[in-house]
Specification:
By secondary structure, this protein is an alpha/beta fold. The protein has a domain at about 10-135 and about 215-280: Alpha/Beta hydrolase fold, catalytic domain (Rossmann fold, 3-Layer(aba) Sandwich). About 45% of the residues lie in helices and about 15% in strands. It contains eleven helices and eight strands. It has helices spanning about 45-55, 80-95, 110-120, 140-155, 155-165, 175-185, 190-200, 210, 230-240, 255, 260-285, and strands at about 10-15, 20-25, 30-35, 60-65, 100-105, 125-130, 220, 245-250. It has an eight-stranded mixed sheet with strand order 1-2-4-3-5-6-7-8, sandwiched between helices. This is Pimeloyl-ACP methyl ester carboxylesterase. GO terms for molecular function: catalytic activity. InterPro entries: AB_hydrolase (IPR050471), AB_hydrolase_1 (IPR000073), AB_hydrolase_fold (IPR029058).
Length: about 280
C-alpha cells in the first residue's frame, strides 16, 4: 500500500451572505488547485488526491459546497444549482486572494469546474475533471436522483432513519472509502430534496457551444460501465475542448483503490499548467 504523503492541513471557512461554507487547505505556495466533491458527497472524498498533489508542491483546497458536508444546508431549492456552485468556488478564490487556480472535480464537481471556466475563464489555469455528467447521462441521472428527491420530500423519515443508523459510526474505525459512504448517508431530508430539485431542474453544465469555446488546458478522466457517468460524456468533452487530454480509467474504482497511475498523471498535468503560465509570463516580460 502506498504511503500517505505528509502535508500541512488547515480548516477554514467563509460566508456568502448568511451561508457559511467550510474548506480545507493542503500544502502551501502559489500553485493553487481547487478540488470539488460529487453530489451529496463531502470534501473529504478529495483528500487522497489533495494530499498527493500537495506533496508535489501545490496548494490544494477542498470545499464543501453549500448543502454538503460541514457547510450550511438550507432547505430552499432556489439556492442550489450548478452555476450557483460555480459562484461559490469563485467566492472561495476571492476569500483566499487567489487570482487563478486549477479547478477540478468529480461528477457534480466536474460540472461545477466547467461552470467556473465558463463564467470566469481568466481565473482558471486548468481543468482537471473526472466523470462529467453531460448529454449522454441525463436520463440515467434523472432516473437515479428523481426517486431520491421524492423520498426525501415525501418520506423524510427514511432519510432520518438512515442518518440515525450511520452517523454514530466512528469514521476512524472503518476503511476510508467506507467512511465516505457513511458520510453520504448523513443527509437531512429538507436540504437533500432541495439540492436534488435544484440540480435536476436546473442547468446541468455549459452547453456544447460554450464548452467548445473554452481555452484552458484540460484533462478529462472517464471510465466504462457507469451509466450515470458514461465514458461517452467524458470522451465528448475531451473532443469539444480544444487540446484536451483524455484519460481512460480502468474502472470507477481505480482512482479510489489503486490511485498511483492517475495521481501521477494528474500531478504531471498540474505541473504542466503552471509551467505554461510561467513560460507565458516570461515571454511577456
Amino acid at each position: 500500500m502506498a504511503r500517505t504523503p505528509l502535508v500541512s492541513e488547515r480548516i477554514g471557512q467563509f460566508f456568502m451572505g448568511e451561508d457559511r461554507l467550510e474548506y480545507t487547505e493542503f500544502g502551501s505556495g502559489d500553485r493553487w488547485v481547487v478540488l470539488i466533491h460529487g453530489q451529496l458527497m463531502v470534501r473529504r472524498m478529495c483528500q487522497p488526491l489533495a494530499r498527493a498533489l500537495a506533496a508535489e508542491g501545490n496548494h490544494v483546497i477542498t470545499l464543501d459546497l453549500l448543502g454538503h458536508g460541514r457547510s450550511d444546508r438550507p432547505d430552499d431549492p432556489m439556492v442550489y444549482s450548478i452555476p450557483a456552485f460555480g459562484e461559490q468556488v469563485l467566492a472561495l478564490l476571492d476569500h483566499l486572494g487567489v487570482d487563478t487556480a486549477i479547478v477540478g472535480g468529480v461528477s457534480l464537481g466536474a460540472n461545477v469546474a466547467l461552470e467556473v471556466a465558463d463564467a470566469a475563464p481568466e481565473r482558471v489555469q486548468g481543468l482537471l475533471v473526472e466523470m462529467p455528467v453531460l448529454d449522454n447521462a441525463v436520463e440515467a441521472a434523472v432516473g437515479a436522483y428523481g426517486p431520491m428527491m421524492l423520498a426525501a420530500r415525501h418520506l423524510p423519515l427514511s432519510v432520518r432513519a438512515v442518518r440515525a443508523v450511520t452517523r454514530p459510526v466512528p469514521r476512524g474505525l472503518v476503511p476510508f472509502w467506507a467512511g465516505i459512504g457513511l458520510d453520504i448517508c448523513d443527509q437531512r431530508p429538507g436540504s437533500m430534496a432541495a439540492i436534488l430539485h435544484g440540480i435536476v431542474f436546473g442547468r446541468l453544465a455549459p452547453p456544447s457551444s460554450r464548452r467548445r469555446a473554452l481555452d484552458v488546458p484540460t484533462m478529462v478522466v472517464g471510465h466504462r460501465s457507469d451509466p450515470i457517468h458514461p465514458a461517452a460524456d467524458a470522451a465528448m468533452l475531451a473532443a469539444e475542448v480544444p487540446g484536451a487530454q483524455f484519460v481512460q480509467a480502468r474502472s470507477i474504482l481505480e482512482w479510489r483503490l489503486t490511485p498511483e497511475r492517475l495521481d501521477g498523471l494528474a500531478a504531471d498535468f498540474v505541473a504542466r499548467c503552471w509551467q505554461t503560465r510561467s513560460g507565458s509570463a516570461a515571454n511577456r516580460a
